[in-house]
Amino acid sequence: MMNTTLMNNQQTKVDTPYTRFLTTLNAVLDHMNADEEVRAIFEHPQHIHKKTVSLMRDDGSTEDYPAFRVQFNNARGPYKGGIRFHPEADLEEVKALSALMAIKTAVVDVPFGGAKGGIQCEPKGMSRKELEALSREYIRVMGDAIGPYTDCPAPDVNTNSMIMGWMRDEYETISGVFSPGVVTGKPLEYGGSQGRDEATARGGFFVLEEVLERAAIDPSEQRVAIQGFGNAGAAIAQFLHEKGYTIVALSDSKGGIYSREGIDPFRINKYKKKTGQVRGLYCEESICDAGRMQADGIELISPKDIITCDCDILVPAALDNVITARNAGDIKAEFILELANGPTTPEADAILEKKGVRVIPDVLANAGGVTVSYFEWTQGRSGEQWTADRVDSELKRIILGAYREVRREARREGLSYRHAAFLLGIKRMLKTMRVRGWCNGSC
Ligand code: NAD
């Protein structure tokens, strides 16, 4: 009999973001009765670039960090996907995120493939000079893998428009060619698009509104908890608050707050900008002002506990693997809007489905970001500048169109929204591969 510790170790070892992606993928490929040739296409990324970036710190010391660019599939267009700077960004995570990008670009039907990048580092505490050096070095080491018609990065966790601006500048310096399309999510003054910063949240907001409208649910009666208060989380908190939803919980990596009476995310954002934490209005480091908290009906909550707090809508907007078999049974929300990539494990998905929780999956819910990246890329090619209203209405048209197709596919095939979105994305990718002659009739 196999030793249990060994068995458990082996099981732990094979549970990675990429194996979790493969579990969902295989469930959908089984549903399609896919043959070996089709399975082989989706099982591995097309290219994996693993390099080291060296950074000279301000104190003169040098540090090396692993850097990744994984190009999953480019059947439908240039590889596309964000770059994250995070201590836990490893190859398995970046592979999984690249695969999700390939499905996502096909779900919203924009002419891109899927890729993702990362540097395994702790960017918090780096000076602006260090961040700039790190961003430029990433472009230098990735060399020919990146390009406006090859592979176009974008922002993700701990990266932003300033970093994208440095990356474009570095690429243009090396290539000597004007290349606005090489990255998206750039500053407005340097080839960015109106609405890109808040696009991920905006797209999720449009889908959520449509889901609630169809279910005849009044937004003003909905209590929302949001994990993560960065680009995606802070923006959706503000959209929902403006629309009359009650934000009951917010968190970032340092901690969270909960209030039955509701939280004003604009006020929280002001203090987050000043202090660097969601709790900044109430706490200085770990010392909190009990009187101020009491006056606003605020309780402290851990970022982890926000997942199971009392709310109607849960929005994971931070990292992956936060809704698992351990906590899915305790989730109180009726709806989950996945602005984060990969927040829910396949085991948790099964538990949530049994409980009747409606999950709006990442490959649809957060596809607003890549949709507006596509608008930015086309504006870069044509030299046009779209108004904020045009960006907003085109985003709404595309993401709601994708939502309706996912919904139709789910009904027709008797699938969850996640599996239906995967099915839709895979079918679209296969259609293109077929006309390109990438598979011998089996796709
Ligand atoms: P960000 O760096 O702007 O914000 C991340 C937020 O998560 C921060 O508030 C951080 O404090 C918080 N966080 C980190 N670890 C946490 C933890 N353990 N518990 C609670 N909060 C924690 O990143 P972002 O761009 O907002 O990305 C957030 C998620 O959305 C990621 O999963 C990303 O892949 C996904 N996403 C982003 C975009 C985009 O355009 N930025 C597009 C699609 C999907």
Characterize the structure shown.
The structure is a single chain. This protein is an alpha/beta fold. The protein has helices spanning 4-14, 17-31, 36-43, 91-107, 128-142, 161-175, 199-214, 231-242, 265-275, 290-295, 346-355, 362-365, 368-382, 388-413, 417-436, and strands at residues 47-56, 62-73, 79-85, 114-119, 151-155, 223-227, 246-252, 255-258, 283-284, 287-288, 299-301, 313-316, 335-337, 358-360. Strand 13 (335-337), helix 11 and strand 14 form a beta-alpha-beta unit. Helix 2 (17-31) packs across helix 15 and helix 7 (199-214) packs across helix 13 (368-382). The longest helix is centred in the last third of the chain and has 26 residues, at 388-413. The model is unreliable at 1-12 (pLDDT under 50). Nicotinamide-adenine-dinucleotide (NAD) binds next to helix 8 and strand 7.
Strands in their spatial order, largest beta sheet: 11-8-7-6-12-13-14
Q: Low-confidence stretches at least 5 residues in length (pLDDT < 50)? A: 1-12
What share of residues is helical? 40-55%
Which structural class best describes the helix and strand composition?
alpha/beta
Architecture (CATH level 2) name of the largest domain: 3-Layer(aba) Sandwich
For the record, what is the CATH homologous superfamily label of the largest domain? NAD(P)-binding Rossmann-like Domain
- Through-space gap between termini: 42 Å
**How many E strands?**
14
What's the total helix number? 15
Task: State the name of the first-level CATH class of the largest domain.
Answer: Alpha Beta
* Average of per-residue pLDDT values: 95
**Total discrete domains:** 2
Which cofactors or ions or other ligands sit in this model? nicotinamide-adenine-dinucleotide
CA gyration radius, whole angstroms: 21 Å
> Which fold does the CATH topology of the largest domain refer to?
Rossmann fold
Largest sheet: 7 strands, mixed
Approximate shape = globular
User: Proportion of β residues?
Assistant: 15-25%
Order of helices and strands: HHHEEEHEHEHHEHEEHEEHEEEHEHHHH
